[in-house]
Request: fold
Amino acid sequence: MALFPPFPSTSASRPSSAAPRPGAVQQAGRTASAPPSFLSAKPPLSPSLGLPSTGLSRSVRVSQEEFLQLRDFIYEKCGIYIAENRKYLIENRLSNRIKELNLKTFGEYYYYLRFDGNRQSELIKLFEVITTNETSFYRNPPQLRIFQEAELMTVLDKLRKTGTRKLRIWSAGCSTGEEPYTLAIILNETLKAELPSWDIRITANDLSEAVLAAARKGAYNEYALRTTPAAVIDRYFTKDGANFLIDPKLKRLISFVSINLSDKNQVRRVERSHIIFCRNVIIYFDDEMKKQIIEFFYDNLLPGGCLFIGHSESLHNISRAFKPEHHSGTIIYRKEA
Ligand SMILES: C[S@@+](CC[C@H](N)C(=O)[O-])C[C@H]1O[C@@H](n2cnc3c(N)ncnc32)[C@H](O)[C@@H]1O
Reply:
């Protein structure tokens, strides 16, 4: 069965009739050498799931002082750093929250976040509004091919030899679940009939409760499957109206958990892993936060374990602890055995 679409990855094997999403918004790295670009509108979290998008009309204006207060608050709470020239993002994305709470200014909203009795639930909403959840099944196929052929098969062989058929994978910043489900499909395709004899868990975490709820539901539209091989869709999804429902046997391999990567105590809850995927997440953070999170990953990995990051991300100037292994189309970051 063709597990990967033909290279290059942009050639989707099943034509999608769904309109592409509007551009995703990304947070700039404070001290990163090449900060990611921003677009002014945040798309719906997932086109098929009816999750909220932000209205862009009638923005409440944010003063410089209010912006700095909120920027520092957001950084303190989740490590996402919004550069000063992205002030309009705060206005675009948070004006609706202010209106829904019947507040008038960003100053009032800041005090609500700090002191109101409902501040914990508002913090969750804030995270949902400021994060970018862009993802898809089979994102970056060349990297996934290396994962399967150069890493997964080797790890499975080693574990078979030791007689411990226990494998732990962590998908950090999993958004609506497309990444961990893709890993579960690859595992299923690799182990086939052997799978039931293995103790496998993919821990998939995110900051946003809304994306985790969507991930647990496992219903996707065609757009989420735009780079997924047709044979994979036929084998692992059931059509339900406009949606594609994920095979429940894949759900059993994954634990979706709410964990903030910038919180050491929360990160410690993740069982030690053989392999970590953290793709298109550290791009949100400044270098200080990147260093901290990459160190968490290093500590979490079992000896000889490895880390996969997004193709536009790098550990240059962030960590020297890992040994980079260069493969065609991807780098595997290895912890010493
Ligand atoms: C662009 S998506 C990437 C999804 C997937 N890894 C992929 O590459 O397709 C980034 C995800 O990271 C999550 N995220 C951002 N900051 C986070 C934090 N501090 N802790 C946990 N998740 C976070 C966002 O909520 C979002 O769902």
The longest helix spans residues 141-162. The chain has two domains: 23-132, 141-334. Residues 6-56 have pLDDT under 50 and may be disordered. Residues 78-80, 131-135, 139, 173-175, 179, 205-208, 211, 260-262, 279-281, 284, 310 surround S-adenosylmethionine (CB under 6 Å).
